[in-house]
Write the structure tokens for this entry.
Amino acid sequence: MDETLQQLGELLLGAVPTVILVALLYVLYKGIVHQPLQRVLAERRSKTEGAIEKSKADIAAADARTSEYEQRLREARAAVFRAQEARRQAAIQGRANAVNEARSKAQTQVQAAKADIEQDRLAAEQGLQGQAAALAQEIVRRVLQPAGVAR
């Protein structure tokens, strides 16, 4: 067992330079490679995340502009529809006014024509009454006239 401990001691003593070399290598790796690599990766990550955040902000702004544009478009369409509806109502009202005016003119003409017809009827009645009276006198005169006298 003594010999085993002695061999173990020699082995550990021979491993000391290797441990020192590995420790030195680790320190050099940390200083030369690992820390600069971590800085580069951190910088890269910040730039990437910054670019992503900027693109998200740009997308949000574009969405806001798009929604604003769509809202303006809806408002413009609504205004056009209101204007069309107003013109349509004005045209309907104009047509209704024209129909009412034509109807009132036609009614006036019908009333005037009825009045003219009534006057013509009265004039014809008076003329017929006058002719009937003249014809009746002529008949009475002829009936009462002596048979031999003729005109």
User: Anything to note?
Assistant: The chain has one domain: 1-115.
